[in-house]
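[audit] Reproducing an earlier prediction to check determinism. Same input, same settings, fresh worker. If the tokens differ from the archived copy the diff job will pick it up downstream; this log only records the rerun itself.
[audit] input (748 residues):
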Amino acid sequence: MISMPQIQSIRRMRRNGESIASIARKQHVSEPTVRKYLRMDDLSEKPPVRKRRGSVIDPYLPLIEQWLAEDRGNWRKQRHTATRIWERLRDEHGAEVSLSTVTRAVARLRRESSVDPGGAFMDLVWHPGEAQADFGEVDVLYRGAVQRMRHFVLDFPYSNIGLAQLMPGENAECTCQALLGLFDWLGGVPERIVFDNAAGVGRRTGGGIRWTRLFQAFQAHYGFESSLCSPYAGHEKGAVEAKVGMVRRKLFVPRPSVWNLENFNSRLPDRCLELGGKPHHAKDEEEAVLFAEDRGALLPLPGRRFDVVTWKRMRTDKYGVVTLDGRHRYSTDASHARRDVLVGLRALEIEILDVEGTRLAVHPRAYGQASTSSEDPSMQLAMPCNRPSAWPNSLVREMLPDPLSEWLDRQNEGERRGQRGRGDAHDPRIDRRGRRGRRRAPRGQARGRRGTRRIRRRQARPERIRHRVHHHGRGRGRSGMMAARNDDGLYAKARSLFISKATMDDFTGWATPRQTDAVYRLFDTELANRERSKRERLLRRARFPVVKSLDGYDFSNVRLPDGYALDGLLDLDFVPRAQDLVFYGRTGRGKTHLAIGLGMRAVERGLNVRFHQTAELVLQLGKAKRDGNLDTMLRDIGRADLIILDEFGYVPFDIDGARLLYQIIAGSYERRSIVFTTNIEFSKWGTIFADDKLAAAIIDRIVHHGRLLEFTGQSRRVSEALMFGRTSAGPASGPKEKTKEQAGTLLD
């Protein structure tokens, strides 16, 4: 549309008798444009109503509406997806429409048929003492290794204070243990807690709510009320939903290092409370002041503390091992093979008792999909005597020191049973079965010289024995307390360094406090060196062309999508969510710089990153396919948490290269993040891939879990170009107007 002054000039010139051709020449517009504005009888502003244009999907809309209406009476897991609707239209009705077109149409029809088309929410009122609970996911450096854990948040909507606990899972034991820790810290119990529709607490079924047995006992013990929010209605507990993200950003970025989970959780509520020293978003008081009202409305704690444990009666296998969840193995001693045992499931440990209640073993509880084994070699020490032929492949042999295991390797089966050589036949310490027992002197006879000398030595130096006990941390002195304080840290560090518990038991038994501190520093140095080596290894594997930092990076020309903050981008919140980013803009606007800077931050946090120039990557994939190494290359790329595809679309691909690149993009969908840097708009991607359908499939996946960042402004390379008078020492010496004119001439 031309300007209003220009329209007025056109009409005035026509009233003066000028021809349409003359008006078009003088106003630099076409003759149809002149006729258009001469015919207009109303120039008042009209409402900006969006008129829907016709589409190839329009003839099929009634059919799609019918399928969606039928879905409302079906189970939600057996309803049509947009992809399934597209497949039926293609196969059953011969429709030539793209998947993206069908997806948009289905989304629009579902919005229009929704009971609540506006998506409005009710403003809920929460009273003091009421709480909401939910889990979130965080990565922590747990005992030297990166592990995905859950942070449980108990939020009080009245004061907007949220308290957190770190747990390895979301089962009933973890939920109740997290609540138990927060109840102890609060000194009371909330009157009512609203939970998500989670398996750890309960789940809505067709006949109502099915609570877990452990949670029912826990709730009855502490006397609070509970409820579940409706399925797919997280807004009913929106306060804790927002608090989960806030706690993750404030307390778990950067990724914390956790050695003792109980100690970490004991400090976590205080750190959460420090975040509440700000005014309430809807009230005139500070959150900490309102939280005092929440605590005043709490129910009192009962007299006894609840033991969060679930007992199961299980049967061990032929090795004396019980298996939980089909993949986690926990051992007892071999004497309880093929017997019934009682297994106590706690949040952090597994306790195994015999049927009479005698404790057999305690193991740390394992989580995750990978198979684990908590077998203790000390529980199998007697097995080589009963089954000496199994000694070469036994777990005990693997854990013994090399000199001892080599000495036992040289013995025959009889010697391992205790039936020793001829010289031992007259040894009174060897019984008829070949077992070595304690040598006893006959009644009335004195002990041997060695025994008598040992007794006299002990009687002569009792102060040395007392000093030894006191010196090694078993006394009440300062050195004993120091050794006891350092023992827990030493065991944690030793475990991360794969040092056995038996070795640490021996070391802490004789080491002085100074020696303990020295080894503690040694472990710290080793772990720091390992972490540095890991970062260097990740940096080499990333293959960045240059090193770029985000310090001083100018974000003024970076246009972020609505609702997406710069802090979220710099915190790499898109990586754990497997979301994609598309950096779109003309050449030289800083797209690659920002992509490399984000990749460097990901490496610093211990994430796997792969940087590829897209055209070069396509060539490498083609070569790997010809050499038969394509699977190996795809596996290497698949190990990455973040993939950066630079200069995407700068060079068109042939159909084979496009399909190879599609394998990486499709394989990364909802599994890992991809950052694209491109100067090609989505509408032209079909020319890049030489296939419109392939381009549509790629765009559909990127748009679903992706964000578009637009880069505007002047080219940074041109503004710093030596060719236009800029030197390494400073800016260009000539006028700015001349430099810009030169730049525009070359770029055009």
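[audit] rerun output stored. Observation attached for the diff report: Residues 318 and 657 are 55 Å apart (CA to CA).
[audit] end
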